[in-house]
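Journal club side-thread
Mid-discussion, someone asked how the predicted structure for our own chain would compare to the paper's figures. Pasting it here so we can look after the session.
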Amino acid sequence: MDYKNIDLLQQFISEQGKILPRRVTGLSTKEQRVMKKAVKQARIMGLIYFSLNFRGNSSIKKNI
């Protein structure tokens, strides 16, 4: 599993941007560990968003 294969990695990420657990993905312990490392590396490289439902600054209330 490669961190550059975004289509494959997005199958293991929830709508909230969280990595799905083993009981949902059906991966073995070793496969889950490799996938988790690839997802984290892709996030650091900017290939995958940390949160898929990013709303920007519109959700922050400012006291003026």
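Post-session note: The first helix runs from residue 6 to 9.
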